[in-house]
Amino acid sequence: METMQIPARAEVAAQDKWAIHDLFATDDDWRAALAAAKEYVPRVQAFRGRLGESAQTLLDYLRLDDEISLAFDALVHYAQRKSDEDTRVAAYQEMVSQVMRLAVELQSAAAFQTPELLAIPEDTLEGFYQTAPDLELYRRNIDRVRRRKEHVLSDKEEALLAAAGEMAAAPDDVFSMLNDADLQFPDAVDKDGNKHPVTHGTYIPLMQSYDRTLRKSAFDSLYSVYGQFRNTAAAILSAQMKQLLFFSNARKYPSTLAAALDGTEVDPAIYHNLIDAVHRSFAPMHRYVSLRRRALGVDELHMYDLYVPVVEGVEMKFTFDEAKEIALKALAPLGGDYLNLLREGFNNGWIDVYENQGKRSGAYSAGARVHPFVLLNFKGTLDDVFTLVHEMGHAIHSYLSNKHQPTAYQDYVIFVAEVASTCNEALLMEYLLSVTEDKKQRAYLINHFLEQFRGTLYRQTMFAEFELRVNEMTQRGEGTTAEALCALYKELNVQYFGSDMIVDDEIALEWARIPHFYYDYYVYQYATGYAAAIALSRRILREGESAVRDYIGFLSGGCSADPVTLLRGAGVDMASPAPVEDATKLFDELIGEMEALLA
Q: Is 391 an active-site residue?
């Protein structure tokens, strides 16, 4: 079998690389800009003790903050993008380190900002708005700081908490070292006795193999090792929960959930609503498990049977030009202006398309102010086409927010970050289904869609419920031992998958390998974002122009309002269980069609 050679960076065609020169023409230009940016440190320090002095002083400081944000945007993106082009180049790793060090210096220099904003009396601040009307631009950001006043401590206490920040990152650091650097897994063995290496990167592809012997072997390999380190893993996760509780208590929040969600202006009720809505929608998930068992033709469905496609013999391959054409057709419901932006990205250096030696793996979109930068490692699979529209969804969201919002409000919060990307995926799926007449290919596509529901809406909600319950155990002073964590995790799997699934004992250890449990109530946003995206895509297809107008308004909103309000403007109310319930209804309908196709 011929092995495809991976080219060196210099061998990649210019049209397949992102236009990094749009940030800086040369590395020397970047270094000059970094040297100039170091002058911001004394300029910031010059405002210490003066923010309440006058309206003009406060306005000057906030404008300086905007200026710094714009300067650092270009510096950070150039260094990080160049480093990702070839991760082996030490010079670019050092450039990333240099700009990060300067960022820390600036953050330290600006540590006075929050306490000084809080110290300005309300009537004085209102007078400032009257004296300097341009300050109105920053009212929302100032209000966001001041509304958390009861959770901000004295200067000395804040300094102590800041000093503890590096220590608080230790559980995540230790987990990363154990999980990514130290753990080694035995080879998996297929039905013919051939060995296959098991790594974090190979595990899911092995789980997608049609060789059930290989799947079980890989499953056993992975969890046998996590089983050996179960007590260590539990101690690390317990330390994470304890540090979250320490900061939550120190800042006088009623719970770690309230502390985490306050930063993104999300009501904790939304978190609970998600879990409750999914619990009420277990029936479609249990129906899907039953369908998967029958489709695979097995008497018992095990956890290692979850990833293998239930439709064999369908191979869909695409060139990058074909993928771009499909994207333009699939996203046509979003209107001509959106398609023009898509073409702009395709034709003007937004995308770094193919793998090269040393290039960072995976895919992402980085929303630089000059224009977004999208990293792909395009191989021509169906997943790669979905990745293209996904990352361009992020990119156009960033582009529109940067274009329509002032600097202070350009960056959207994580709660809405996955909505635009997933909405594009949903529109792509609807398009592919609309043009696919082949019964087997249609079943393959629906299987792909069903797996998105299972993997994002249900699986991420299960993760969110586990994270919440472990935090609550910690708050009650209960032991979060390996035994307790395994018992809880297995109980959740039984609930979510139902009676047609054999919940293998090994899966009780899965919590030990999930890095997101160190991200502080992050995972629920995948599920809420998916539900919102499904609702938006259905509304766009159903209502057309008016829905598109609302949606583009949402994409252009940055953080000019809280995320729930922004989504409500697009026609989706995430404070209601309706988006989650509607998504699970669509999941159920697709299962029905899949059952008919496989009959």
A: yes
